[in-house]
User: Which sequence fits this backbone?
């Protein structure tokens, strides 16, 4: 049967805009200067793609409308996130605050003897695979205000980890 006789189900389906990384209610959207730059670059990329999609020919009008609606939603969400961003770039150098890169060593627990390196960043910049943890993450909250030599206890699914802070650095 020809596809011309089949109903295009996706044309009638609502466009679902993917959610950005969540912020707990009432928590400010703290970002590093780098994080704000990344958000602005992402916005520029989305706006470029939107302009391209508006002028592109040859694609199905329904599909193009859906793509534009998706891009409009992403742009609106990102504009909202940027407008609420609070850049944090001043901090005490000797204690862990937003933007700190921290080196810890596990003293007791499943991964005893292991060193970890984390940077505390905003939720949009967070990427655990790169050692970038959101300031809302349990380990970031546990480290807040700590200094070199202090101990942090983190309860995980695998048990309790006790870590000593070895170094604190700000870029």
Assistant:
């Amino acid at each position: 049967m020809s596809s011309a006789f089949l109903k295009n189900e996706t044309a009638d389906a609502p466009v679902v805009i993917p959610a950005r990384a969540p912020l707990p209610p009432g928590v400010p959207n703290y970002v590093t200067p780098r994080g704000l730059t990344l958000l602005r670059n992402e916005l520029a990329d989305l706006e470029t793609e939107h302009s391209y999609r508006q002028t592109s020919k040859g694609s199905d009008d329904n599909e193009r409308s859906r793509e534009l609606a998706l891009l409009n939603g992403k742009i609106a969400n990102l504009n909202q996130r940027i407008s609420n961003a609070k850049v944090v770039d001043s901090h005490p150098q000797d204690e862990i605050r937003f933007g700190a890169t921290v080196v810890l060593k596990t003293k007791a627990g499943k991964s005893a003897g292991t060193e970890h390196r984390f940077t505390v960043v905003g939720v949009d910049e967070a990427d655990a695979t790169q050692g970038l943890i959101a300031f809302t993450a349990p380990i970031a909250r546990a480290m807040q205000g700590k200094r070199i030599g202090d101990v942090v206890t983190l309860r995980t699914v695998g048990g309790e980890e006790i870590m000593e802070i070895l170094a604190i650095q700000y870029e």
